[in-house]
Design brief:
single chain; 454 residues; 3 domains; 17 helices; 82% helix
Length: 454
């Protein structure tokens, strides 16, 4: 009786939850359709009216499909007891869940986290371009590290020329001769190179400040409020401008110019003819100019090697900004929006949990019904129906069957009479005992006489 009571309560609970189950399925399907509409609208392009109706039709189809699929599964799955059939339905449920995720859940995630995903895309792009600008700035300023060496070399040649002119420190004869002319020439070339490097630093600084201004505007767009689409469009415009600034900064580097100038110091060295009036002075001038040639060659080698080291730095690769839709951004940055994905998928797949609950309850009911006796499982209505069927069967029996049953009944009655005769008391007792009218009647029956004759 306790088991029967539990079964009754479970059946009553399932019946009471029927309306709630339908309401839950309809609500979840409607919610999924609404968010699917928001996701689809962000993907479609064209006239506003066409986009609106296309999104509405798609979202309505998704809602109907989700409601129909889970209704089918909820009606059929809990009542399937065979292991093979239930496994097949589980496979169908998994396939249907994957299809629902493909046609609805990712669009729901796009509606829930699309704007945040686009801002994430803009933020990572901003970080990449900030790194590119810093690297381009470093590459452009790398040649500035050669400026002290160039300035020292220029000043050294200029000082030697001045000393030679005033006191004849190199040749022993003061005055402006071929040695002074050569030293002044080398100092002038290095001075021009120093001026080029200095001017490039000013140009690099100007470009860097321009790039920083673009980055500041882009940061404001990333962290701004309002719709993300207009901000993304303006962000793309600043990206184009910033790309041009980075390219110009890469071309502003004076490292190639330093290398060419360093090579020209030694390759383009033209020593003047010694113009001393005395043979000894001419000899001394030739020796000094040879020493200057060696010094210029050493200085040229050092500057050229330093320029090669700068040029060996990897240049900034050209970066291309790819605008994304909200749905594409959600897919690319899915790891950063796991809660939104979980919520979007849960809306579509929550009915599977309800189906599992019903399957467990129906399994319990089947187990309980197998342990309850049949007399306790049958209801009054089922008993009355069985009795009506029995009466109908009895009414349609052939007459022969009734006659055969009557003969069998008479034969059974005769056997009872014979047994009574065999147990009849002795004659003395019969004489004293009164006659039993029932026995006399039974002995007088034709059936009894026939058996005696036999």
């Amino acid at each position: 009786m306790m088991a029967n009571s539990a079964v009754s309560r479970l059946n009553a609970g399932i019946g009471a939850l029927e309306t709630m189950t339908r309401f839950a399925l309809a609500t979840l399907a409607l919610a999924s359709g609404v968010y699917t509409y928001l996701g689809v609208r962000g993907l479609l392009d064209g006239e506003a009216t066409i986009v609106f109706f296309a999104a509405v039709i798609y979202s309505a189809a998704v809602s109907v499909g989700i409601y129909a699929f889970w209704t089918y599964m909820m009606r059929l799955f809990p009542h399937v007891a065979a292991a093979g059939a239930r496994g097949a339905l589980v496979g169908v449920m998994v396939l249907g869940s994957l299809m629902i995720v493909a046609m609805s859940s990712w669009l729901n995630a796009a509606a829930l986290a699309g704007s945040a995903a686009l801002e994430q895309h803009l933020a990572e792009t901003l970080q990449d371009y900030t790194s590119d600008l810093d690297r381009a700035h470093e590459n452009a300023l790398a040649a500035q590290s050669l400026l002290p060496d160039i300035r020292l070399a220029s000043e050294r040649f200029s000082r030697l020329a001045a000393e030679e002119r005033e006191s004849g420190a190199l040749t022993g004869t003061s005055g402006s001769g071929s040695v002074v002319q050569l030293l002044s020439q080398m100092s002038a070339q290095l001075g021009e190179l120093e001026t080029s490097v200095t001017q490039s630093r000013e140009r690099v600084q100007s470009l860097f400040e321009e790039g920083q201004a673009h980055l500041a505007t882009m940061r404001g767009l990333v962290s701004g409020t309002g719709s993300v689409d207009p901000r993304a469009d303006e962000f793309a415009e600043h990206v184009v401008s910033l790309t041009g600034v980075i390219a110009a900064m890469e071309q502003t580097s004076v490292a190639p110019a330093v290398k060419r100038a360093a090579d020209d110091l030694s390759l383009g060295f033209i020593a003047p003819i010694a113009d001393g009036g005395e043979a000894g002075l001419v000899l001394r001038q030739d020796r000094v100019m040879g020493t200057i040639r060696q010094s210029v060659a050493a200085q040229s080698t050092a500057l050229s090697q330093a320029a090669d080291d700068i040029l060996a730095n990897e240049p900034v690769a050209e970066r291309r900004f790819v605008p994304l839709s909200s749905a594409e951004a959600v897919l690319r940055y899915a790891r950063d929006f796991v809660p939104s994905w979980a919520g979007a998928i849960s809306i579509d797949l929550l009915p599977a949990v309800l189906i599992m609950v019903l399957a467990v309850v129906h399994s319990v009911l089947r187990d309980a019904e197998t342990r309850v006796p049949f007399a306790e499982r049958i209801s009054a209505a089922e008993l009355m129906m069985a009795m009506d069927v029995q009466r109908a069967i009895d009414a349609r029996r052939p007459t022969h069957d009734v006659a055969v049953e009557t003969a069998h009944e008479e034969e059974d009655a005769g056997s009872h009479v014979d047994a009574a005769v065999e147990q009849e008391p002795p004659a003395a007792d019969r004489a004293s005992a009164p006659e039993d009218p029932t026995k006399i009647t039974a002995l007088a029956s034709p059936h009894h006489r026939q058996r005696k004759d036999g």
